[in-house]
Amino acid sequence: MTLDLDQKVLPGGQTTCGIVRCLETGSESRLREISEMTISKSSAGEGPGRRSKVASVSERSPNMSTLWNGVKVDGTWSKQDTTLALFLTENDDCRSAQFSCQVRYIDGLGQERESSAQIGKTGESRTQSVETPSSSSSYLTAMIQQSSSALENTRQQLNDRLEDNLRHLENRMEDKIGLLGKALLKVETRIDADGDGSKVDSRASTDDVMKNQIARASRVFENISILEENVQHILQESSSVINLLAAAQQGYNDKDFGLCSTNISERILKVLEMVTNGELDRVRKTKSNLVEGNSCQRRDGTHTVVVPEDEPPFLCDSQTDGGGWIVIQRRSSGSINFFRDWSAYRDGFGSLADDFWLGNERIHALTSTGKYELMVSLEYNEKSAHALYDNFAIGDEASNYTLEFGAYTGTAGDSLGFHTNTQFSTFDRDNDQKDANCAQLYFGGWWYGKRICHECNLNGKWKQSHYRGPNWYGFSQDKPVTFSEMKIRRL
To answer: Hey, how many other C-beta atoms are within 10 angstroms of the C-beta on 140?
Structure first.
């Protein structure tokens, strides 16, 4: 802050006795952003608390050119450079008045601070800072907090990367183990189909059966060799099945053959339990279901796996409302990423033992063969609900898998009703009727709507609120459900 006592002729003919200038620039290392600058005046004989505000500039009033009690005032404000100038024409103001300049600013740590300077008749200025926080210890504390926050962010980023890498590794192992499970299920199916057929009447016919079984099993175990080292114990157990089959070729009668078949079945069951952590521990109870094509039969039990000939397996719900359901979608753990492209949703992804999407092509193939109903099972906030729709179907890929369904009944609310006759969209194939890409905004492939993107989106980002997670508005509003399962049953 300066007081220039030089004379200057102002427009209109007045002559100054002095000019008071208050200047703050962004070159100050302590300063990041200027908020406001104010000049005040106190006359001779007035105490320090009797100051009168002359003028101020800020973001709300960045430019000033005015008169204050006959004093011309000019000022400009910006975040980095701010100036106020008073053109004094009264000798008393130049000789005895005191002026102060207050500057409010944001420092390099984001703290709001204030500094002030005073100048009197001698032209000398005194400056002081009023800071918030006002002590050096507070300033140091703020720096420590900022550093700690940066370290925590770095640690979190490293943890996220590690989790992503582990999840990627788990997905790779899951896919490979799934292939092994499918292959072994086919072995079980074919062995049971041969073993439970007509009685072997001669040694020659039995030899043919056993040779065929050995050949099939050998081909399966050749394919298993691509698995990584951490599943070698599974391969070792599997190879014992071949040994049993080979041993059965030599010298046996019908009784021996029956015992051998029982032993083989037990061995395969053990392998399946190792591969799927018990998910298929009821193979014997449902072995007739393994070769019955593209439908789930109504029977006792919970969830079972059906392996049609030369097709990927299905997951069947054999308990809900009498059973007979084919599960087409499940979210239960959040371990599978559902923010995927068109081809992934077309072909299907995930694991039948965890979260998965069956695949639009397979859903279309099923629903195009007859009338199906859809059941949606949900859990949220320790409560369960369901929605049931009749006449459910989706079109082919040429129609972008257009969604069709009939009447609603249930306890979850008709949140899918908004989506009737909509086309399926993914982030790389935008088929909704809005300007925005709804699949991009809500992190998953779905049948998005027209006026708004959705009232339900069970393929959204796991645990995300504000409609971005797997929500069902009639049940959880904009909050994510903790479990969802979509399943269809032939009417």
So the answer is: 11
The secondary element (H helix, E strand) that includes residue 244 is helix 232-248
Class of domain 2-139: mainly beta
Domain segments of the chain as ranges: 2-139, 163-280, 292-491
pTM of the model: 0.43
Whole-angstrom CA distances from 168 to 70, 94, 262, 268, 444 are 76, 77, 39, 29, 19
Residue 187 phi/psi, 5-degree rounding, is -60, -45
Q: Where are the beta strands (DSSP E) in 346-405?
A: 349-350, 356-357, 372-380, 383-394, 403-404
Query: Is the domain 163-280 a CATH 1.20.120 member?
Result: yes
Same CATH fold assignment for domains 163-280 and 292-491: no
- pLDDT per residue of the chain (491 residues) written in tens, 0 to 9: 777 776 777 777 788 888 899 988 765 556 678 999 999 988 665 555 577 889 999 999 999 888 888 889 999 999 888 999 988 888 888 888 888 999 998 887 778 888 888 887 545 555 554 444 444 455 555 555 655 666 666 666 666 666 666 665 566 566 656 655 655 565 555 555 544 443 334 344 445 444 444 544 444 444 444 444 444 555 555 555 555 555 555 544 444 445 555 565 565 556 555 555 444 443 333 333 333 334 565 444 456 666 555 567 889 998 899 888 999 999 999 999 999 999 999 999 999 989 999 999 999 999 999 999 999 999 999 999 999 999 999 999 999 999 999 999 999 999 999 999 999 999 999 999 888 899 999 999 999 988 899 999 999 999 999 999 999 999 999 999 999 999 999 98
Domain 292-491 has CATH 3.90.215.10: yes
